[in-house]
């Protein structure tokens, strides 16, 4: 009996070493979605070629308690780790590269899942990739399609986009489940990437560093192996957008000037209607909540960074002077709640 258990553990260890891909699942209090995703892996054969690891951000949650008590009902092929605190998304993404031992890594949200045929698509793609590909960005119909190309950075990619597609293109880059990363290209630049964790897109920075320093490439693929769920979680998109802009525009050490310019170009596009919506949503979040922040100071800071935001601020300032409850009801309905509004 003891030797059989040893052989089982030994075979499992060997199978993990031979697998080309790790799938890292960051989760926080979504047991139903997590269970659906694990069933999806089992049905599609994802577990046959990928090492699956759950990263739980809720150390006091029911899953962590069950695992600690030996009652966790996880499949044998799934590993589990629990963070000692609720890490930010950016830190959790980068932590995946520290724990991964396979050549490739995907970070899959617990409310997403794989489409039929995804296992073969991903395996065939990995087998065909050139050695200089640092990361692959899969396509998605969630925010329109992306141009198919191999790029030496985001500058080349942005040049292929129409300005009217900048907002959707940026949202596409933020879809963490749609990225396939080569871990050897990432590890040398992990420490500097932590400097930009507050941008919410820290998963991009090591690949961009590899493009600049190692002449690596990004591949934008036509494949769509991932289906995206609609999250019912509420989190402040206004604050997130502000953090992205301030981090990219003000901090250094994690991104070069050309890729920084490309990201800010996508974030601070010239669509005046969307920019007015940004002004109103920033005012709603920072002006009507007791956060200890001066919303007008934030507006001025953003206006100094972006001429488009300055134009929108000048057009909308009479409305910004009014309390949110005095804004027209139709406008408030259009803007939505700051925790559930559309991506920007």
TrEMBL record:
<protein>
    <recommendedName>
        <fullName>Glycosyltransferase 2-like domain-containing protein</fullName>
    </recommendedName>
</protein>
<feature type="domain" description="Glycosyltransferase 2-like">
    <location>
        <begin position="23"/>
        <end position="140"/>
    </location>
</feature>
<dbReference type="Pfam" id="PF00535">
    <property type="entry name" value="Glycos_transf_2"/>
</dbReference>
<dbReference type="InterPro" id="IPR001173">
    <property type="entry name" value="Glyco_trans_2-like"/>
</dbReference>
<dbReference type="InterPro" id="IPR029044">
    <property type="entry name" value="Nucleotide-diphossugar_trans"/>
</dbReference>
């Amino acid at each position: 009996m003891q030797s059989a258990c040893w052989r089982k553990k030994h075979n499992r260890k060997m199978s993990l070493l031979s697998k080309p891909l790790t799938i890292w699942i960051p989760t926080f209090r979504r047991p139903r979605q997590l269970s659906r995703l694990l069933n999806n892996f089992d049905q599609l054969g994802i577990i046959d070629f990928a090492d699956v690891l759950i990263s739980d951000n809720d150390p006091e949650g029911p899953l962590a308690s069950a695992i600690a008590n030996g009652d966790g009902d996880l499949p044998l092929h799934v590993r589990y780790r629990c963070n000692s605190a609720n890490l930010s998304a950016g830190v959790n993404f980068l932590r995946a590269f520290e724990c991964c031992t396979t050549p490739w890594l995907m970070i899959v949200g617990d409310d997403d899942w794989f489409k039929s045929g995804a296992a073969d698509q991903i395996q065939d793609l990995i087998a065909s990739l050139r050695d200089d590909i640092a990361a692959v960005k899969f396509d998605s119909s969630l925010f329109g399609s992306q141009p198919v190309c191999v790029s030496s950075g985001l500058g080349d990619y942005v040049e292929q986009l129409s300005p009217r597609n900048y907002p959707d293109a940026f949202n596409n880059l933020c879809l963490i489940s749609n990225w396939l990363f080569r871990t050897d290209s990432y590890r040398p630049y992990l420490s500097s990437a932590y400097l930009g964790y507050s941008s919410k897109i820290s998963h991009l920075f090591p690949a961009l560093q590899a493009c600049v320093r190692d002449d690596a490439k990004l591949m934008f693929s036509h494949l769509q192996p991932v289906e995206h769920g609609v999250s019912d979680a509420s989190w402040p998109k206004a604050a997130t957008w502000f953090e992205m802009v301030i981090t990219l525009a003000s901090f250094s050490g994690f991104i070069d000037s050309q890729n920084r310019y490309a990201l800010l170009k996508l974030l601070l596009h010239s669509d005046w209607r969307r920019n007015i919506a940004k002004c109103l949503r920033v005012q709603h979040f920072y002006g009507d909540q007791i956060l200890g922040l001066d919303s007008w100071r934030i507006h001025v800071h953003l206006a100094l960074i972006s001429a488009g935001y300055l134009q929108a601020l000048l057009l909308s300032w009479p409305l910004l002077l009014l309390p949110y409850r005095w804004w027209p009801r139709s406008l408030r309905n259009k803007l939505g709640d700051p925790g559930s509004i559309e991506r920007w």
